[in-house]
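Deliverable D2.4 — example input (C-alpha cells):
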C-alpha cells in the first residue's frame, strides 16, 4: 500500500515537472518572438518599401539571366576537336583536326 502511494507521488512529481518545463519553453519562445518583432519594427529593411524590393528582385533576375551563357558544347573523344569547337584551338588549312584528322564542323 505504501509502495502504491510512493509510486503515485513520484508519478505526480514527474508530471508536474513536465508541465513546468513545457510552460517554461512556451514563455521563452514567446519572449523571443516579441523581441524579434521589436527588431523588425526598428529595422524594417526592404519590407517597408515593397516597390524597392520588387525592383531589386527584378534586377537580380536580370543579372543572373544575363550572366547565364548557353553552352553549345558536345562531348568528343578528341580533346583537340573539343578545343576547336570552343574556339581555343586551330584546325589545319583543310579544316581537319591536327590530333585525330577529323574534319571540323
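Example output (designed residues):
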Amino acid at each position: 500500500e505504501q509502495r502504491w502511494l510512493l509510486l503515485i507521488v513520484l508519478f505526480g512529481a514527474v508530471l508536474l515537472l513536465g508541465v513546468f518545463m513545457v510552460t517554461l519553453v512556451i514563455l521563452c519562445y514567446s519572449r523571443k518572438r516579441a523581441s524579434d518583432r521589436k527588431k523588425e519594427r526598428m529595422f524594417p529593411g526592404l519590407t517597408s518599401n515593397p516597390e524597392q524590393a520588387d525592383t531589386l528582385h527584378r534586377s537580380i533576375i536580370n543579372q543572373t539571366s544575363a550572366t547565364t551563357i548557353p553552352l553549345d558544347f558536345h562531348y568528343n573523344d578528341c580533346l583537340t576537336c573539343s578545343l576547336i569547337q570552343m574556339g581555343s584551338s586551330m584546325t589545319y588549312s583543310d579544316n581537319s583536326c591536327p590530333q585525330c584528322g577529323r574534319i571540323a564542323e
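The chain has a mean pLDDT of 82.
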